Amino acid sequence: MTNDTRISKEILINQTHRETRIAIMENGVLAELYVEKPENARIVGNIYKGV
Question: What's the number of domains the chain is made of?
Fold first, then answer.
C-alpha cells in the first residue's frame, strides 16, 4: 500500500432497548452491518477478523 492509497474505516454503533446495530464503513460506504436482538445470539463481545 502506498502513501497515496488510504482506507478510511469507521465503526458506528446504535443501541436501543430492542436491538443493537453495528455498521462497518469503509471510505464512506457500508461494508458490513450487524443487527442484534435480545432474543437472538449475541455478537457483541465476539472478535471477527475481516479479509
Answer: 1
- Beta-bridged to residue 10, according to DSSP, are 25
Give the pLDDT confidence of 9-51 residue by residue, as tens digits: 999 999 998 999 999 999 999 999 999 888 766 666 666 666 6
Is residue 33 domain-resident? Answer: yes
Whether the model clears a pTM of 0.90, i.e. scores above it, the answer is no
Strand partners, 29: 26
